[in-house]
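Session log. Operator J.P. requested a structure for one protein chain; no other inputs attached. Running the standard single-chain path with token output.
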Amino acid sequence: QVQLVESGGGLVQPGGSLRLSCATSGSIFNFNLMGWYRQAPGKQRELVAQMFTGGSTNYADSVKGRFTISRDNFKNTVYLQMNRLKPEDTAVYYCYGDRDGHGTTWGQGTQVTVSS
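Structure written below.
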């Protein structure tokens, strides 16, 4: 069973940076789409960023220019570089991946807290 394991969350001050990692237990090429969602307390889960196999990307308007999604095919890992973090970025961040015929696989989530 393919798994996604996130790491890199934590506490950071406003204006700071964090990089989240999402490692796949199999080949990253098994996924035709990978990305990140987040869910803040009392709010619905929202898409943050996604990357297709060909390399095209999409971002939520709220993070454009601050967050960057990337991947390392050799390490089978997807990253989310988060810069100029704001308190409203505080949420649990979930990595996900879509595979043909297998639906969506989710990571366990990692907490990001932006606070002074």
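Operator note: The CA atoms of residues 23 and 75 lie 8 Å apart.
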